[in-house]
Amino acid sequence: MLKTAQARRQTLRALLAIGVSAVATEQAFAQATAADPAAVEEVIVTAQKREQKLKDVPISIAAFGAAALEQQNFTDFERLSTRTPGFFVQQQTDSSASFVMRGIEAGNAGAVSEPSISFFLNDVDTSRSRGMLKELFDIERVEVAKGPQGTLYGRGSQIGAVAVVTRRPDLTRTAWSLEGQYGSYNLYSVTGVFNAPLVDDTLGLRVAVRRREREGFVDNIAGGKPLNDDDLWAARASLRWTPTPDLAFDLILDHQADNDSAAATKAINIASPGGDTGWFSDAGQNRYQPPQKRRQTGVTLLSDWDFTDGWTFKSISAWREVDFSESWDVDGTTYEFLIGRNLADDQSILSQEFRLAYDQGGAFRAVGGVSYYQDRTFNQSEFVINEQLLLAGFPRNTTPVTRFPVPGTSLVLPVTKGNSTLSSTRNNRKSWSAYINGGYDLTNRIVVDAGVRFTRDEATVRNASLVTTVDGVAPIALPNGLSYSLGQEFSNSRDYDMVQPRIAVTYRLSDQINVYAGVSRGLKAGYPQTTFGAPAAGKPTPVFGEVKTEEVVNFEIGAKGTVLDRLYFEATAFTYDYNDFQTRAVDLTLGVVNAGKASAWGVELNGGLKVTPELTLSGAYAYLNTRYDEFREVVGGKLIDRSGNVFRMAPEHTVSVSADYRRPLFDGWDGFVNANYAWRSKYYLNNDNLESEAQKAFGLVDLRLGAESADGLLVEAYAENLLDQDWVRDVGNGGKFFGVPTSIRATPRMIGVRLRITR
Fold first, then answer.
1. Does a structural domain hold residue 399?
2. Does the structure show a pLDDT above 70 at 28?
3. How many CB atoms lie within 10 A of CB 174?
4. Is 528 within a domain?
5. What start and end residues bound the annotated signal peptide (predicted)?
6. In sequence order, which residues have a C-beta less than 8 Å from that of residue 225 and are 6 or more positions away?
7. Model confidence pLDDT, tens digit, residues 313-346
8. Is residue 9 pLDDT above 50, yes or no?
9. Do strands 615-635 and 653-666 pair parallel, antiparallel, or not at all (unpaired)?
10. Which of 115, 161, 348, 680 places its Cα 20 to 30 Å from the Cα of 108?
11. Going by C-beta distance under 8 Å and a sequence separation of 6 or more, which residues neighbour residue 480?
């Protein structure tokens, strides 16, 4: 039986009482200060749009500084998430991933659906339509804020936000670095950074470039290149101008090109000829055109003006463009049954925010702003079904049906090899937003933070589809393909008004330890949707509807701070109610539907201990209990009740423990060893909670050792997934709708060396 909200909150309070004194992870734990090598350093974050010590922010946050990102060689969010309780990332390629925050998933595909997790690059929203994933290089810090953050971050931050801040030019000195890596599967990576003041203390330039390439780690028995390869170019140029001490401008240009050829999607219930159905053995699948390709380009202009005592004005102007295309073997076999193609998946974003902040160091401070966001997205996709195999009953029978006798007649018709549905979606969304968030010290111990954001979205979606066959043979099984629009384009518009408030109260137990409690509301905007019934008299029958806005109401309590200047800890307990959640219907003609209600609660612990000046121990633990309270969907014409099931990709327990040991060796060289173990309990990969599509509990071991000199030389050997643990990133995928679920294998052991010189 499901627990009541009251019972859940009582359990949370008990767990928090146990967890407050727990030792936790390195995210919030920094390097020792120069004054005391055994002391922890204060971590500064900007989650509330102003600089604050991490312990003073009444939000559960994981923060990674430049030193931690470089020492751990975090280049992607998947590895970074293993150190972050409550954050789960499965990165299939540089262009595709699943992000989960406290059990709620935010996929990055789709031309229409709004995100559940906001991603910001230098204060610019890059959350949706293939634009989430960013290569992490030359980064100042990464902040992961968990729980609804709509008041502070706006659209798409229903259950959390990730903020990436890149390094800015240093106006005082010329510097450069060059790093190279070589590793398993012929991996090579080269990263170069150059910084130069063009006008001393006034104008500076910083350029960072990375090139990485690696062969695939899954052999394909159908021949050709191995699958799951990596091919990336990324570059960034930053220009900083400070005409006066109170005024600064940052112009940032960035570009990323991903050319990963194909991910391995292997069928797990039918073997290709000469193959098997094992999740981790060689794949057998066809390669189609076009290959996977993504281009991201952005221009950002940031203006900061301290125009009078305590008042700051900030302008954030940005343009971004994302172009993506790919093809994939949907059925994951060498039988040509299902082909998927994204022929175009393009997005153009124009955004502007003006922000005003007040803080004179007194009892009251506030920040507020207005913003405009325009998102234009175009997707053209194709889905091809082999009717010869479909009529044969694939995958039970693999012998094609080439001739079809028409019942009740003497006619025998040829059967097409490929029934193609070519669909296009155009999305135009304009969003206006206004927000204010303030803090007030009621006493020297009690602080109240509160805010609200109002957002108005105007969305117009245009849909069209066209059914053809690849061989000119008329379709039999699916005369209208997967859509009934019959080639005509239909437009649907809706407006959405959203109010997202938050309030939190902090109690300062001491100068070093705070406890807090807060409540916040997060919304994932809905969108207009057009579905089609069976044609009538040869004409389409569109149904103009909408997918409703999702809502999360989150209650949270926590404690964070330092003990004896050596231990940093953070303990958080939360519970939320999840209403009108959106999910893609099993019946593809229904599109996305609002499926019902759900709830979750959990505990997150993290922090670190400076045992000695040489040895740092850190760790993280998260407990997550999720449940669909009301969830019914139509499968094969029958209503199936999923109520009581747990969320997909939501392990109940996750653990991460790390040790970092550094000590002098000789003549200005320091040696170091870093080890990390990340463990997840069993979790399901689909909402139907099938045991045959569950990932069993597993752990990953990373090990790094090397030496670094005082004059900027680094030599390192590393092993990621040292024990070569088999695990999958996903199971089911598009083939599951046609009885052919597929698995996507995760990265095996990777061993390599890294060399870096900094001047």
1. no
2. no
3. 11
4. yes
5. 1-30
6. 215, 216, 261
7. 999 999 999 999 999 999 999 999 999 999 998 9
8. no
9. antiparallel
10. 680
11. 467, 486, 534, 535
Could you tell me if residue 406 is inside a domain? no
CB-count exposure of residue 430 (10 Å: 0-12, 13-18, 19+): middle
Of 129, 145, 178, whose CA–CA distance to 59 is shortest?
145
What mean pLDDT is predicted for residues 652-664?
Answer: 95
Where does the pLDDT of residue 366 fall: very low under 50, low under 70, confident under 90, or very high at 90 and above? very high
Nearest to 520 by CA among 506, 503, 538: 503
**Cα–Cα distance, 558 to 17 (Å, whole number):** 10
Q: Are 493 and 144 in contact (CB under 8 A)?
A: no
- Residue 670, domain extent: 5-385+416-758
For residue 427, count other CB atoms closer than 10 A to its CB: 23
Task: Kindly report, residue by residue over 109-152, the tens digit of the pLDDT.
Answer: 567 888 888 889 999 998 876 777 889 999 999 999 999 988 99
Helices (H), 362-458: 387-392
Q: Does residue 409 contact residue 441 with C-beta atoms inside 8 Å?
A: no
**Tokens matching residue 529:** 């949707």
For the purposes of burial, counting CB atoms within 10 Å of the CB of 117, is it exposed (0-12), middle (13-18) or buried (19 or more)? Answer: buried
Alpha-carbon gap, residue 198 to 205, rounded angstroms: 7
Count of domains for the chain? 1
In-domain check, residue 394: no
Residue pointed to by tokens 């759900």: 598
DSSP character at residue 40: B
C-alpha distance from residue 481 to each of 385, 477, 502 (Å): 9, 9, 47
Q: Would you state the pLDDT for residue 14? A: 39
pLDDT band at 531 (very low <50, low <70, confident <90, very high): confident
Confidence (pTM): 0.90
- Indicate the SS3 state at residue 362: coil
User: % helix / strand / coil in the chain, to the nearest 5?
Assistant: 5, 60, 35
Relative to beta strand 87-93, strand 117-121 is unpaired
Taking the CA atoms of the chain, what radius of gyration do you get in angstroms?
27
CATH number at residue 365: 2.40.170.20
Q: Any bridge partners for residue 377, and if so which?
A: 347, 427
